[in-house]
Amino acid sequence: MAKIKNERVGVCYLCGSEGIVTDDHVPPHCLAPKANNSIFYKLPAHRTCNKYLSDHEGRFRDYVVAYANNGIQEAEDAFEKMQRNFERGKEERNGLLNQDYYRLRDNIVFGQTQIGEARTSSGILLSPFVGIKPPQDLDYKAVLIKIARGLHYHHTKEIIPNTHIIRAEFLFSDFERHNRYIKHLNISDQMGDFFGYKGTWVKNDPKKGGIWYMCFYRSIIGMAGFSQPTTLT
To answer: For 3-17, 92-106, 136-150, which range has the lowest pLDDT when averaged over its residues?
Structure first.
């Protein structure tokens, strides 16, 4: 069998087990399919862990790129790939687009109000966006958690165990409360115009947990947090 590129022995940043690993892109490469590989974090992951959420990562891309600000090249590239995917196999469906198109169309919410200014005081960019609910078959929380696990591992080399309390969500409301917290976070980076983040971890002990806010295409913000469960005695 052909050797997989960058295959090696290592510890998977997702499950924490040792074995044959390869590079996993953080954030997912599909968010900026034409971007230079060097701007992604490439972390060790088992092939099965790496590919486990592949379908959901593609649906996640389709969902968040719908909120993208105009003029962002990475969003244009992702949107172009999304459109090609919509048209894939339409000849066999008498010209109809595939289910990925209807997944988004059927979740449009009319009358959604605008939720933010162009830029928060902490530096994360926002924009008004159309109202689209996350499709039921998109596990967006799992994708946000996977990206946050990668950010946490990249900065601390600590693997978040599944026994931790893990939460994730898109921020569609209560921006002022989150913004007051975000501006005090001490770790940040910006990868082109398609992804930026701010975060931190428990002081002096990153094993205990952390929190990460992630901005996609300078428009939609998600968050994921990890914390050790408390033990009652």
So the answer is: 92-106
Q: How many Å apart are CA 101 and CA 85, to the nearest integer?
A: 9
Q: Which residues contact 165 (CB under 8 A, 6 or more apart)?
A: 209, 226, 227, 228, 229
Rounded to an integer, the average pLDDT of 189-212 is: 94
Q: What residues make up the domain containing 56?
A: 8-227
- Pick the range with the lowest mean pLDDT from 94-103, 116-125, 197-206: 116-125
Number of domains in the chain: 1
Asked, for residue 139, whether it belongs to a domain, the answer is yes
Q: How far apart are CA 16 and CA 24, in angstroms?
A: 14
pTM (2 d.p.)? 0.85
| The residue to which tokens 């917290």 are assigned | 181
Return the bridge partners of 187, or none: 199
- Reported confidence tier of residue 4, pLDDT bands at 50, 70, 90: low
Length of the chain: 233
Q: What are phi and psi of 8, to 5 degrees?
A: -165, 170
Q: Which of 43-52, 63-72, 121-130 has the least mean pLDDT?
A: 121-130
Residue type, 140: Y
The answer as to whether 1 is a domain residue is no
52: in domain = yes
Looking at the domain assignment, is residue 122 inside a domain?
Answer: yes
